[in-house]
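In the design runs reported in the main text, the only information available to the sequence generator was the tokenized backbone. The following block is the verbatim input for one such run; it is reproduced so that readers can re-run the procedure and compare outputs position by position.
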């Protein structure tokens, strides 16, 4: 006669399975990013393009069928929907170029954010418990941000590689957690 597993044991096994599967997927994703960085960037761009087309259709549908909204709201929704659909179609027309444009855009965006983050850190210096660390952080943030602003594509490539490496490392750690969870 076999004993029924306890609720606690069942929950623990479920969590271990989720951790293991999540870790394995993270390792696979990281390896794919590292082995085929350009192809995976195009896949991400394709996913964003699909989202844009679907969101565009939803916005256009809201504008066309939402009779309770005012005229300008409906026109705005339709125009926004058309813009999203066109952007998605343009991205699909040349995924490589769209991925490149997205990488440059994200490189510039992250560069701007890091510069602003460094300036904000300096502006709150009088509130910081450790002035030395705050100044060090601000300088590194501003330098990294300016580096990305002056070379956004290079910066985006480095960030993409870091995402791949991080996914592999964190996936391996997650798999380790799956084996040790509940023991």
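Verbatim output:
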């Amino acid at each position: 006669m076999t004993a029924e597993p306890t609720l606690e044991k069942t929950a623990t096994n479920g969590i271990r399975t989720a951790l293991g599967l999540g870790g394995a997927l993270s390792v696979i994703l990281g390896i794919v990013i590292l082995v085929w960085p350009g192809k995976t960037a195009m896949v991400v761009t394709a996913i964003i393009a699909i989202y844009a087309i679907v969101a565009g259709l939803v916005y256009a549908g809201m504008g066309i069928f939402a009779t309770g909204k005012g005229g300008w709201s409906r026109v705005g929704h339709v125009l926004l929907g058309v813009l999203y659909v066109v952007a998605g179609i343009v991205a699909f027309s040349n995924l490589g170029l769209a991925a490149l444009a997205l990488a440059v855009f994200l490189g510039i965006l992250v560069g701007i954010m890091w510069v602003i983050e460094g300036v904000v850190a300096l502006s709150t210096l009088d509130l910081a418990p450790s002035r030395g660390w705050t100044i060090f952080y601000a300088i590194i943030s501003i330098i990294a941000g300016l580096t990305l602003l002056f070379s956004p594509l290079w910066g985006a490539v480095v960030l993409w590689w870091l995402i791949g490496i991080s996914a592999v490392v964190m996936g391996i750690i997650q798999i380790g957690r799956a084996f040790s969870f509940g023991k």
